[in-house]
Design a protein that fits this description.
The structure holds 2 protein chains of 2 kinds. Chain A is α/β, with parallel strands linked by helices. Chain A is built from 24 helices and 17 strands. Helices cover 40% and strands 17% of the residues of chain A. Classes of the chains: A alpha/beta, B mainly alpha.
Chain lengths: 637, 81
């Protein structure tokens, strides 16, 4: 996952063409460049993108909106492949990086000569990219020789740091060293001075000790190598052929690791983790499944996976990351999990801003950023729903939105691997920051909706499918009728044989609704039953929908369909009822929003509504597919 | 995989490495014909080929290729194994 930058969405299929377009245009479309950089790019992609960056710079100088950073690089290995990767990866992290490098292997000279290429360029920082070859190979078992080898290597590092500080005014970014996987003694290597493992450990410990408290910083290449696997990390062939310190397929991850440290130095790390709730912090939909129905906790593999997500969020909070919630949910229902569910690790006091409502996510994210008084570029959104992720990436590109696999067991590790909260320091103040925000943040006011929702809906390329009840859909219809709580106007429950009876009754109008979009088939997402009440009148007995498709104007399309069939059968009046259950407040205003007029209001809170079936209802951007009605009954549109 | 398909993939790889969409992989094409095809670019081509076709080359194979035709036959023989 790390080697492939699995937290980023895949590059667009026309990546080449888009690069070419940016190469050939006259200006510098930096936002388009950043969008391309924010994909899971391989080495070739990065190389191509770096060429685009160079061309844009040649045309217009610095890249507008990105932070310029001049990076020197010294290494005992080949860095030709690293330089373009660092330039392109920098764009992903908001940096406009230019590189200046020393000739192969000449790190010490580059640092100590005041007018060396690197010193003369006055870089902001110099990357000291050395691997295990820099330590030398003392004979295994010779403790004194091993100690000398490590001390010499560290002394050389110190000399370079001092040289770059004095002559270039630059800080040093120093790599830790990955050990070689091949063991001489086997497990006993741990006990023998001078083995690769012992040398690397001693070097890394010594390095961290001297860098802590200095102006310089570490990039933990040893940890990266361990994470992807030492055996895969080093390629003897690539070292022999071209002196590559590590297998070229890890160049993208390596560049990301280096650029994260630079971004952190420039204060670009993110500050706030925004959490979705249903199927992100727990399994299931609390509005439908109820407090007791959600999957969370020990003893169940899925429940434990969600505990891991909560644990990771809490650990981030402990180190100063602010937590917020953005969820399409009823506020009271969502909060009940935080207050009452015994397995919840996250509690209300951990959440600085709690946004559970039916607004779209971009609106809520903007409200969260405003409430915390931080930029959108400080937010990370963790959300299991690919449509929400895509909407946020499209409308608020500043917000980081990690891709998540289907399996919740991987959510926590993907979030942490994505490195959004990279730091170069940690203080007591950081620890208290999350608390500070939580105490000060008031519940954010809802902001007006983002305006280009229409464009987003069109981009979903939705196809809505209408059919009367049939044998194929029967089981799912019964399931929806018995399970849906939130988007359910009357909450009438029917068994499967009841459903069969409705299906067979020619007086009753039935409708099952399916929806497809660019992300795939959502399956059946709606059920409607209408029955004759007075002559020329239908009462909408049942209208329910899946909350997955909220905010897509599916309701309007369903009503259009209902009205078409009503007109077809000479029905002029449509009567809708809303029966409150405590769980369906979401649809309290369903009918008035669709243009129905109030008929009556019961003391119980139930309401009845009327619409003329001839009223034109504005369609939503989606294609309509319809089947299963006899030709005579089929509407003409 | 057909030989034709291999050349199509190689053309895409050359496009990736050199950023030249009018560069077509032919059996006779050599590094000398392409501006910028130095030893580092050669490795980029080789590594991209390894990733795309799921094959591995030895050092002597990497160094011993005279033209794109030899590269294509080597890929073909490795895929056949």
């Amino acid at each position: 996952m790390i080697a492939e930058l699995g937290w980023l969405p895949p590059p667009p299929l026309d990546f080449r063409q888009r690069c070419r377009a940016l190469l050939e245009e006259s200006g510098a479309d930096v936002p388009a460049l950043v969008r391309l950089a924010t994909c899971a790019l391989d080495e070739n992609h990065l190389n191509r993108l770096a060429r685009v960056v160079e061309a844009m710079r040649a045309r217009g100088g610095a890249l507008a909106g990105l932070t310029p950073f001049k990076l020197g690089i010294v290494s005992n290995a080949t860095i030709d492949t690293i330089v373009p990767a660092v330039i392109a990866t920098g764009v992903r992290l908001g940096l406009d990086i230019t590189c200046v490098s020393a000739p192969f292997g000449l790190g010490v000279q580059a640092a100590l000569e005041p007018d060396s290429t690197i010193n003369a360029a006055r870089p902001d920082a110099v990357l000291l990219a050395f691997d295990h070859h820099r330590i030398g190979a003392p004979p295994a078992g010779d403790a004194a020789a091993a100690e000398r080898a490590v001390a010499d290597a560290l002394r050389a590092i110190d000399a370079m740091r001092e040289g770059f500080r004095t002559h270039a005014g630059a800080i040093s970014i120093v790599q830790t060293i990955a050990s070689v996987p091949a063991a001489l003694f086997g497990s006993f290597d741990r006990a023998v001075p001078g083995t690769s493992r012992r040398l690397a450990d001693a070097f890394n410990a010594g390095l961290v000790e001297r860098i802590c408290g200095s102006q310089d910083v570490v990039v933990d290449v040893a940890a990266l190598a361990e994470s992807v696997g030492l055996e895969a990390w080093q390629s003897a062939l690539q070292w022999n052929v071209a002196k590559f310190a590590f297998d070229a397929r890890f160049v993208p991850a390596y560049a990301e690791w280096v650029c994260r440290v630079i971004a952190a130095l420039r204060g670009k790390s993110r500050k706030c983790l925004v959490l979705d709730l249903d199927n992100t912090l727990w399994g299931g939909v609390i509005g439908d499944d109820g407090l007791e129905g959600i999957v969370l906790g020990q003893g169940d593999a899925t429940g434990e996976a969600f505990l891991d997500v909560q644990r990771a969020a809490l650990a981030l909070r402990e180190r100063g990351v602010v937590l917020a919630v953005s969820s399409k949910n009823d506020d009271a229902v969502a909060r009940s999990a935080f207050r009452e569910h015994s397995e919840m690790l996250l509690r209300e006091e951990h959440i600085a801003v709690f946004q559970a409502n039916w607004n779209d996510k971009p609106t809520n994210l903007a409200a969260i950023a405003a409430e915390l008084n931080i930029g959108l570029d400080a937010l990370v959104l963790l959300d299991d729903n690919p449509a929400e992720r895509s909407l946020v990436r499209g409308t608020l590109p500043e917000v980081a939105v990690p891709e998540l696999p289907d399996d919740p067991a991987q959510f926590a590790s993907v979030l942490l691997a994505a490195g959004y909260f990279e730091s170069v320091a940690f203080s007591e103040e950081d620890r208290d920051r999350a608390r500070f925000y939580a105490e000060n943040a008031r519940r954010a006011a809802l902001r007006e909706s983002v305006t280009d929702i229409e464009a987003f809906l069109r981009s979903l390329a939705m196809e809505i499918d209408f059919r009367p009840f049939d044998a194929q859909g029967r089981a799912r219809i019964a399931q929806l009728i018995n399970k849906s709580n939130q988007f359910n106007l009357t909450t009438r429950r029917y068994t499967e044989s009841d459903v069969l009876a409705l299906e067979r009754d020619p007086e009753i109008f039935t409708l099952q609704v399916r929806l497809k979009d660019t992300f795939g088939d959502n399956g059946m997402i709606g059920v409607v039953v209408a029955r004759p009440s007075d002559p020329g009148e239908w009462e909408i007995d049942t209208w329910l929908m899946s909350c997955r498709v909220l905010g897509r104007r599916v309701e309007a399309m369903v009503l259009r369909e209902l009205a078409l069939h009503a007109r077809e059968r000479g029905i002029g009046r449509l009567v809708g009822r809303y029966v409150p259950t405590g769980k369906n407040r979401l649809v309290e205003d369903h009918y008035p929003k669709l243009g129905f007029a109030l008929l009556e209001r019961d003391p119980s809170g139930a309401t009845s509504w009327l619409l003329d079936s001839a009223v034109e209802i504005e369609p939503a951007p989606m294609d309509v597919v319809r089947s299963g009605w006899a030709p005579s009954g089929a509407p003409s549109t | 995989m057909t030989s034709e398909r291999i050349y199509e993939e190689l053309t895409e790889i050359l496009d990736d490495v050199f950023g030249e969409d009018d560069l077509v992989a032919t059996p006779e094409l050599t590094a000398g014909d392409v501006p910028g095809w130095d030893s580092m670019a050669h490795l980029r081509v080789i590594f991209a080929v390894e990733r795309r076709f799921g094959v591995k080359f030895s050092a002597s194979q990497i160094d011993g290729l005279a033209n794109v035709g030899e590269l294509a036959s080597l890929i073909e023989s490795k895929l056949a194994q």
